[in-house]
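FAQ

Q: What does a record look like?
A: Structure on top, sequence underneath. For example:
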């Protein structure tokens, strides 16, 4: 049985209290909400923080407000189950509801939060193992070693971003509110990420993700497709999030395509989206956009299934996602 290492648990009731505790405890502390990823990582000794600051008791992190016309504000502590079942998200931001509902299992979605999923630790076959297993083969660069076992000649870590909600929020043009004892700031979600498996986030050590802000739906439609070996529980080995705005003549007025689980951050296929903008969604346009988007997918041998298979499926999944809009399978905004 894998056991948690010893730690002190602090349970603030207010966000500003949590921010002060984070400053007070410094690099000894980590934040925890649902704990569905952090606690297993602690059992495997990827993390051994002496102090955990729990966010579950802070009411303002659990609120959902707004509308499709005004935009939505989603507290970072809102569970994935609530997101997957929220009527406004289902009707107007369906890709986010789909992504939230595809994470792991019902039990873990009941505990896991949008904030925890968005800031999920990057993953790798050589990293997400028990401490005994990692010690037996030689530690990797991400924890206790100095070599990336996926690409030994590389000076960087290639662990991948496996958060289902991350590519969706990037495609939706969402923003993140970050709070600290110094104040707060709001940044686009895509600015949270950097292409670095060891240090994948730009968020400062004293900052807390307090909420995710969705822009008004304004006619945008969205879809999320996920590739994994099993139909539930598994992390994505490819995620495709597409948001599309259609003009009155049926042409594409705006498009955003984001790939997940193919790099250390969500990958925006802006060149593929540009091919669609101003054009009709014809089979040729879809095939061209899918092929262009797939060029941004450069998976390595650090996840389930072969990297060549995952690379080939990128084209197919982008094409399937775009076909949703042609075939009317993507949920249309409700008037």
């Amino acid at each position: 049985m894998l056991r948690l290492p010893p730690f002190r648990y602090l349970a603030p009731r207010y966000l500003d209290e949590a921010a002060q505790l984070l400053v007070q405890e410094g690099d000894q502390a980590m934040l925890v909400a649902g704990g569905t990823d952090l606690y297993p990582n602690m059992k495997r000794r990827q993390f051994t923080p002496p102090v955990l600051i729990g966010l579950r008791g802070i009411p303002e992190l659990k609120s959902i407000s707004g509308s499709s016309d005004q935009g939505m504000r989603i507290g970072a502590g809102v569970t994935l189950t609530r997101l997957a079942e929220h009527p406004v998200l289902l009707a107007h931001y369906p890709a986010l509801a789909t992504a939230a509902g595809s994470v792991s299992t019902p039990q873990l979605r009941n505990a896991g939060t949008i904030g925890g999923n968005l800031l999920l630790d990057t993953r790798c076959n050589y990293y997400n193992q028990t401490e005994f297993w990692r010690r037996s083969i030689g530690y990797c660069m991400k924890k206790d070693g100095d070599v990336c076992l996926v690409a030994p000649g590389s000076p960087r870590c290639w662990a991948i971003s496996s958060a289902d909600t991350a590519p969706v929020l990037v495609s939706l043009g969402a923003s993140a509110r970050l709070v600290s004892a110094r104040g707060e700031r709001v940044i686009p979600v895509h600015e949270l990420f950097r292409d670095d498996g060891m240090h994948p986030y730009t968020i400062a050590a004293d900052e807390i993700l307090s909420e995710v802000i969705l822009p008004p739906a304004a006619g945008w439609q969205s879809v999320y497709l996920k590739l994994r070996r099993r139909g539930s529980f598994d992390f994505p080995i490819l995620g495709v999030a597409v948001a599309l705005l259609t003009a009155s003549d049926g042409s594409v007025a705006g498009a955003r395509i984001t790939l997940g689980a193919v790099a250390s951050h969500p990958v925006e296929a802006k060149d593929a989206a540009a091919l669609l903008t101003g054009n009709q969604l014809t089979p040729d346009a879809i095939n061209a956009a899918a092929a262009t988007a797939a060029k941004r997918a450069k998976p390595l041998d650090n996840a389930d299934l072969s990297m060549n298979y995952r690379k080939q499926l990128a084209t197919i999944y982008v094409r399937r996602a775009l076909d949703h809009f042609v075939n009317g399978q993507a949920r249309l905004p409700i008037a």
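Q: Is there anything notable about this one?
A: Residues 63-119+160-326 form a domain with the Enolase-like; domain 1 fold (CATH 3.30.390.50).
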